[in-house]
Amino acid sequence: MNIQVEELSGYMLNGNVAKSWSYLETATYGKDSMAFYDALKECMYFIGELWEENAITVADEHIASHVCKTLLSYKYYHSVRKTPEVRPLRRKKAMFLCVDGEMHDLGIHMVSNYFHEHGWETQCLGASLPLNEAVEYAEKFQPDVIGLSANIPYHLPAINQYILALEQLPFGPAIMVGGKLASNHDLEFHCPPNTMIIRNLTEIEDLIKYMGTVQHGNAINV
Questions:
Q1: Which option is the CATH number for 5-82: 1.10.12, 1.10.3470, 1.10.1240, 3.40.50?
Q2: pLDDT tens, residue by residue, 126-145
Q3: What is the mean pLDDT of residues 20-43?
Q4: Which single residue of 60, 127, 130, 198 could bond 178 by disulfide (Cβ 3.0 to 4.6 Å)?
Q5: Where is 109: in which H helix or E strand?
């Protein structure tokens, strides 16, 4: 994938949705949509590093985040238009959310989009969802997979709390955890054994293939 992270990040920091979209469409033409999402992820990580180094302001980072969300909406719209609707007897379901206090939800929007593109019925509940509301919605929606996201070690106790509560649901959803916390730490030592740890977006492809071959309620450590 021929992506120049600094160039694309510059378009995003300038709030230029049109140039960002054109650049991504050209660079990822003919490739699986995961290439599109992975490029956005790399840019947002780069922009986050610029913010940590005080090279950009909070306002700059918010502009780039807004562009990223707009691009994800464009991508979702185009994928829905291109993909013929398939109506199996029962579509697999997935819901995605950030634990309470986690405000960075771009990653789960990407993952939710990708699941939807592969025929799943998805719901993305966004940033900072309280545990009781996550459980309440899951009871109503009854997903096969529940994806949790967190980015800093401070949220590790919350991740465990969410997993333990959601594992008690009677329909037995598989629980997956992603985000920077999963990428940078060995969560296998901190999470229940059946938790699926997703370290990067490319592992989502393997997970979707796997979930197409197992019955509702199974889980793996990808």
A1: 1.10.1240
A2: 999 999 999 999 999 999 99
A3: 92
A4: 198
A5: helix 106-117
